[in-house]
Write a structure and sequence with these properties.
By secondary structure, this protein is of the alpha/beta class. It is built from 18 helices and 12 strands. About 45% of the residues lie in helices and about 10% in strands. The longest helix is centred in the first third of the chain and has 27 residues. The protein is globular.
């Protein structure tokens, strides 16, 4: 660089000055480049294209196509879907599902109590408060309006999945305003309960889950990813509503009759899987593979059971009928022999293969759906999650009667009113099975279970029986599920009232406007 003076003499900048000038130029260019790429990075760039895909179809694992149902969905929902399509949980601390089968005493009894009524505790309330505090800090907005869904009977989940997927997290946390197509019901709490009952029915009809040994549910390999993702978001919202209600009180929140198996609930809650969890899902597998493997001379015994007297036991899944190895438990499984030193690893990989082999995408979709609402969900335990989701199915008739309000209009004779009420409770005690009582609760309140802790004292609004003189004696009992009210005609004849109740339970569930 040359500088010209008035005397037209040329001077060369010294080496230090040249270095400083070059450094300054480099810094300026670097700053401009950073600003340029910062601006570019603010534009979301998903290497995908939108194209129409059937809501109930699978997406190919190698494909990055996003279904039409997700057009306009929040970016975190699209991310949850894309990661579920390749069997990957959304949150980094859950990315490796295999880790939940590692580092745990898979051979021992976890010592967990199975009785759900002892699961309600001060500890659970504190965890619910912690969850609500985190949601309040992150996203919850008490002024947000609930999301509107218009459902069709028998396809409640399918017909509303797109709406659920497109709702923001804050909207779902605010609640759901449900209505049924071509029906008169307007939601003040009762319609959303009915909607969730219809969702449960469709889940059964579509076989999104399979029943395991202990009667609970594990995800099915045929479950469509989009429906499972929407269901996961719905589960997350229900758990959040129930946690807030349990922590701070208020109107009873709706529940979903979906008894997830313990391993699946543990994966959602980010807990380790124990051997006893496998026993609850498939006791035969536990007895013939896991328990034998960990016993004295277990490897030899298992080889005999599989017909491998002259062959090594490999890290592979063995067909229970032919005894042949069909798939490796890990990439080099067919070359890896099971020994006394690595038998624990074999047990864990066998458990993981059984639970996740064909359902990794479905499992990831369910987890991602829940976590798109709750975060990584590690604040609450799996028992909390099940209790908040399902409510309590076992309830006490004495507690029910004690916490019921009886409304008798002034025009009704008190002796007649006493006889009708006595007849009603006698029918519940003698004529109705436990299942029928649950259906009566469903008919009257819109939910077949009680919110935790499972007492009628906590049901809000209180359960109310109204003796209605305006109802003809031949009329069915009328329910107002938004207010947990059951209106009875003035029938004191046990046979007639029992028949009327039974007819209502058999034919009155599943629609609004039935007289």
């Amino acid at each position: 660089i040359r500088l010209w003076t008035d005397k037209k003499k040329t001077f060369m900048l010294d080496k230090v000055g040249g270095f400083l000038g070059l450094s300054l130029l480099t810094i300026m260019l670097g700053w401009l480049a950073v600003r340029f790429f910062e601006r570019k990075s603010k534009i979301p760039r998903l290497n995908v294209r939108f194209e129409e895909v059937n809501d109930k179809s699978h997406i190919d694992e190698d494909s990055c196509n996003i279904p039409e149902a997700l057009r306009g969905a929040p970016s975190d929902v699209i991310e949850a879907y894309m990661m579920a399509a390749v069997g990957t949980p959304l949150h980094a601390n859950l990315r490796n599902l295999s880790s939940f089968f590692r580092g745990t005493s898979i051979g021992g009894n976890s010592g967990e109590k199975q009785i759900i009524d002892s699961g309600f505790s001060a500890g659970m309330i504190n965890r619910c408060r912690a969850l609500c505090a985190r949601l309040d800090e992150e996203i919850f907005d008490p002024t947000e309006a609930p999301g509107r869904v218009v459902a069709k009977r028998r396809t409640a989940l399918s017909s509303t999945a797109q709406a659920i997927l497109r709702m923001s997290r804050v909207t779902l946390l605010a609640g759901i305003d449900a209505m049924f197509e071509n029906e008169d019901g307007r939601d003040a709490g009762g319609v959303v309960k009915e909607y969730l009952t219809e969702v449960t029915t469709e889940i059964q009809e579509l076989a999104l889950f399979r029943v395991v040994a202990d009667g609970t549910l594990h995800i099915s390999e045929n479950a469509p990813i989009l429906l499972v993702l929407a269901l996961g978001r719905l589960i997350g919202a229900i758990v959040a509503w129930a946690a807030r209600r349990l922590a701070f009180g208020g109107t009873s929140s709706p529940t979903l009759d979906l008894s997830l198996c313990k391993p699946l609930a543990k994966l959602i809650a980010g807990e380790k899987i124990a051997a006893t969890d496998i026993a609850s899902v498939d006791p035969e597998l536990y007895r013939t593979r896991i328990e034998i493997s960990r016993s004295q001379n277990g490897i030899h015994t298992l080889r005999q059971a599989l017909g491998l007297e002259n062959d090594d036991l490999l890290f592979a899944w063995y067909d229970p009928i032919s005894g042949e190895p069909t798939e490796p438990l890990h990439p080099q499984g067919f070359e890896h022999k099971v020994t006394e030193d690595n038998v624990d690893l074999y047990v864990r990989e066998t458990a993981e293969f059984y639970l996740l082999n064909n359902v990794r995408r479905q499992t990831a979709a369910l987890i991602n759906g829940v976590h798109s609402i709750l975060g990584d969900a590690k604040i609450i335990q799996h028992r909390d999650l099940l209790l908040l989701l399902n409510g309590v199915a076992n309830f006490d008739l004495i507690d029910w009667r004690k916490n019921t309000i009886i409304q008798v209009p002034a025009t009704v004779d008190t002796d007649l009113a006493s006889r009708v009420v006595h007849t009603f409770w006698s029918i519940l005690n003698s004529d109705l099975t436990n299942d029928a009582r649950s259906r009566l609760l469903l008919y009257s309140t819109g939910a077949a279970t009680l919110p935790p802790p499972g007492t009628f004292a906590q049901l809000q609004p209180k359960f109310k029986i109204v003796l209605d003189p305006t109802l003809p004696l031949h009329h069915l009992p009328v329910a107002h599920t938004c207010f947990n009210q059951l209106h009875l005609p003035l029938l004191d004849d046990p046979k007639k009232l029992s028949s009327s109740l039974q007819l209502a339970l058999d034919h009155g569930l599943g629609s609004f406007g039935l007289a």
